[in-house]
């Protein structure tokens, strides 16, 4: 069966060069085709172009085999790739929300046993089935919001059994949902209460017990560490990344959210796929990223929610670097997976142009989760994960109308949902 989307007002993020990412000043450029068609066969995109060049399917193959969708007045975008989330979690943390409003910092909340440790307690009490059901609801929500691929981290378990429980839920979601999902093992997300004052022993446990078991069950694509002030040091991160990589997991880390942590440099040292957060980035960090294969990834939802300084995105782009954006969907610092809103935050708070924000949430974020060959742009042979908008006047209207749901039809793996 073929699906033909015709009369598309604008087909956005068209790629004919198989680019792995866009960087620097190119981020402001977006390849688009006005008055376009898009042809999907099975799960894949097989053709696209101007309406005036549309092949005559009626004559060529008989109209029966082509289902046509008339997108007059509407645009077609590649689905968002959300390269950093923690969307498998138990409960919620709105009590901390009030604490934050009253003025407590993220670190102060963490020190009082709130924060990640609060989620770890709830995670311990939840069954695998409960976790799966609640994560599935979040997945369904983000599908409706235009996301077609998502990376999900563990890290609310903090014991071998609970980390495996989280990762098994992610593995099940990979099989049961139409999204492309990648899993990251984040055992080093926080030091659990039982190991208070014995951080080195916890790190040893992550390395010697958790990583081998995660690898044996093939539960994670990537190895992650929260390398930041008050969490894990550069030396600990170095050891954990090294161990994860020996077990076939590429690094993808949390870095420089709370301070100049050295996390970016250690990430680049291990050829991390991405280093994420990046509120604290100076010249040394930019130099480390230049010429590397590591995608700087910014999480505007967490910075907004925690009211933090903004990552110097313009400085990174001016230095010729690429930038990706992700939601960081999690109960503590970013309780939303709405990537369209992430674009709006990026435009207003980081002064990114709408075109830059679109590149950062599609092709660049696809790279940041290792799926750029399959997703992130409209290209022949890529998986047909796209959405059709409602009638909108321009591309810029997407981040501009920040509270409106402008997504009308979602197509994942060639299927209209
Ligand atoms: O990416 N920065 C560290 N980890 C998460 C927050 C997790 C939480 O507070 O529950 C993040 O923001
Ligand atoms: Fe995170």
From TrEMBL:
Any one Gene Ontology MF annotation carried by this entry is: zinc ion binding
Location relative to the cell:
Cytoplasm
> Which residues hold 4-imidazolone-5-propanoate?
93, 156, 189, 257, 333
Pathway it belongs to?
A: Amino-acid degradation; L-histidine degradation into L-glutamate; N-formimidoyl-L-glutamate from L-histidine: step 3/3
What Enzyme Commission number(s) appear in the record? Answer: 3.5.2.7
Name the UniProt key words of this record, in alphabetical order.
Cytoplasm, Histidine metabolism, Hydrolase, Iron, Metal-binding, Zinc
The positions annotated for binding Fe(3+) are 84, 86, 254, 328
What HAMAP family does the annotation carry? HutI (MF_00372)
Organism lineage string: Bacteria, Pseudomonadati, Bacteroidota, Bacteroidia, Marinilabiliales
Origin superkingdom? Bacteria
What is its cofactor? Answer: Zn(2+); Fe(3+)
Q: Name one GO cellular component term.
A: cytoplasm
Question: Record's family?
Answer: Belongs to the metallo-dependent hydrolases superfamily. HutI family.
Kindly state a single biological-process term from the GO annotations of this entry.
Answer: L-histidine catabolic process to glutamate and formate
Tagged with keyword Membrane: no
Q: Which reaction does it catalyse?
A: 4-imidazolone-5-propanoate + H2O = N-formimidoyl-L-glutamate
Q: What organism does the record attribute this protein to?
A: Labilibaculum filiforme
Amidohydrolase-related domain sequence ranges? 75-416
What protein name is recorded for this chain?
Imidazolonepropionase
List positions binding Zn(2+): 84, 86, 254, 328
Name one matching Pfam family: Amidohydro_1
């Amino acid at each position: 069966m073929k699906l033909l989307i015709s009369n598309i007002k604008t087909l956005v993020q068209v790629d004919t060069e198989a680019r792995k990412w866009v960087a620097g000043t190119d981020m402001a450029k977006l390849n688009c085709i006005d008055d376009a068609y898009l042809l999907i066969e099975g799960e894949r995109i097989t053709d696209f172009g101007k309406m005036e060049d549309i092949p005559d399917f009626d004559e060529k193959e008989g109209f029966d085999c082509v289902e046509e969708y008339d997108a007059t007045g509407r645009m077609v975008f590649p689905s968002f790739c959300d390269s950093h989330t923690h969307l498998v979690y138990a409960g919620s943390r709105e009590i901390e929300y009030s604490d934050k409003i009253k003025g407590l910092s993220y670190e102060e909340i963490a020190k009082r046993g709130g924060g990640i440790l609060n989620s770890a307690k709830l995670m311990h009490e939840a069954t695998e089935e409960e976790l799966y059901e609640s994560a599935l609801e979040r997945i369904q929500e983000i599908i409706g919001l235009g996301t077609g691929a998502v990376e999900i981290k563990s890290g609310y378990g903090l014991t071998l059994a609970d980390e495996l429980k989280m990762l098994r839920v992610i593995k099940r979601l990979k099989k049961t949902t139409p999204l492309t999902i990648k899993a990251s093992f984040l055992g080093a997300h926080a030091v659990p209460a039982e190991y208070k004052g014995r951080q080195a022993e916890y790190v040893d446990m992550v390395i010697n017990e958790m990583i081998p078991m995660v690898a044996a069950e093939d539960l994670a694509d990537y190895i992650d560490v929260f390398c930041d002030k008050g969490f894990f040091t550069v030396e600990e991160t170095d050891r954990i990344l090294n161990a994860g990589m020996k077990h076939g997991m590429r690094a993808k880390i949390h870095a420089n959210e709370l301070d100049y942590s050295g996390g970016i440099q250690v990430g680049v040292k291990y050829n991390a796929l991405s280093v994420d957060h990046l509120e604290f980035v100076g010249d040394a960090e930019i130099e480390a990223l230049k010429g590397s294969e590591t995608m700087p990834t910014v999480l505007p939802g967490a910075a907004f929610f925690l009211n933090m300084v903004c990552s110097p995105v313009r400085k990174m782009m001016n230095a010729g670097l690429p930038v990706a954006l992700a939601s960081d969907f999690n109960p503590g610092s970013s309780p939303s997976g709405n990537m369209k809103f992430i674009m709006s935050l990026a435009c207003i708070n980081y002064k990114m142009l709408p075109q830059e924000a679109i590149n950062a949430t599609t092709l660049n974020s696809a790279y940041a989760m290792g799926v750029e060959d399959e997703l992130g742009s409209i290209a022949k042979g890529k998986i047909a994960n796209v959405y059709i908008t409602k009638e909108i006047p321009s591309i810029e209207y997407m981040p501009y109308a920040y509270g409106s749901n402008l997504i009308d039809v979602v197509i994942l793996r060639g299927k209209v949902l």
